[in-house]
Amino acid sequence: MGTLYLVGTPIGNLADITYRAVKILKEVDLIACEDTRVSKKLCAHYEISTPLKSYHEHNKAQQTEYLIEQLREGISIALVSDAGLPLISDPGYELVVAAREHQIKVETVPGPNAGLTALMASGLPSFTYTFLGFLPRKEKQKQEILEKRMYEDSTLIIYESPHRVKDTLKTIQKVDKNRKVSLGRELTKKFEQITTSNVDDLLNQLQEGLIPTKGEFVLLIEGAVAVEDTSWFEEMTIVEHVNYYIDQDMKTKAAIKQVAEIRHMKTGEVYDVYHNV
Predict the structure, then answer these.
(1) Per CATH, domain 3-112 is 1.50.40.10
(2) Residue 226's pLDDT is what?
(3) Is residue 277 very low, low, confident or very high in pLDDT (cuts 50, 70, 90)?
(4) I need a surface site. Which of 21, 59, 271, 274 has the fewest CB within 10 A?
């Protein structure tokens, strides 16, 4: 049987492609792509003469069956999207599932990803992030998802079209207008722009044309910061607070240190108050 290659392609700058990706695209028998017009430009740039076959959201049902038949007959196929990684908010999931069901070998050829590219330069926390892809178009459904997800301790990564980016920002504004948000556009291209600010400021910049509504957007939302519950000790004096831990068999020195940490004080200050220095 043939091999199905999942090949990452540039998200803007045509130079952002691996040697291996070009090699695979030249060696396979067929390239399945979202839009043949887009992929032709990439192929022409790297002198790739492999035949192209359209594979997109509207024909994936019939084309999946066709491509699986080709793979079973020994034809090797590379799956690419218009930009970035196949399957990541792009077609290909059904094809990969079918290939695995038929024990067809699936190989990945990594490449750029718009969401992570924007995250790297956004200045927002990158330790934990959640990829949401494209949000629903309907306002009610969009708000429901954001109300749920924006209260997680994770930077959210969203893809958005230039025609809907303002509306999505207004929805974010309804949920939490103080949250830091980053807009990335024209990534890896000459006029790349990644702007991080509050929602009000970003909407003003869009309105004034400082952030042009051209090209696909990556929208990043800062994760929620956990609010520390201090209600249980707010009524206690510092002495009472230290004694609370001592009563739980904690040494005096350790109790003083614990109180200082929780109250965001210096250990010496708590020590002086406790010992009435």
Answers:
(1) no
(2) 65
(3) confident
(4) 59
Q: What is the 3-state secondary structure (H, E, C) of the chain?
A: CCEEEEECECCCCCCCCCHHHHHHHHHCCEEEECCHHHHHHHHHHCCCCCCEEECCCCCHHHHHHHHHHHHHCCCCEEEECCCECCCCCCCCHHHHHHHHHCCCEEEEECCCCHHHHHHHHHCCCCCCEEEEEECCCCHHHHHHHHHHHCCCCCEEEEEECCCCHHHHHHHHHHHHCCCEEEEEECCCCCCCEEEEEEHHHHHHHHHHCCCCCCCCEEEEECCCCCCCCCCCCCCCCHHHHHHHHHCCCCCHHHHHHHHHHHCCCCHHHHHHHHCCC
CATH code for 115-221? 3.30.950.10
pTM above 0.85, yes or no: no
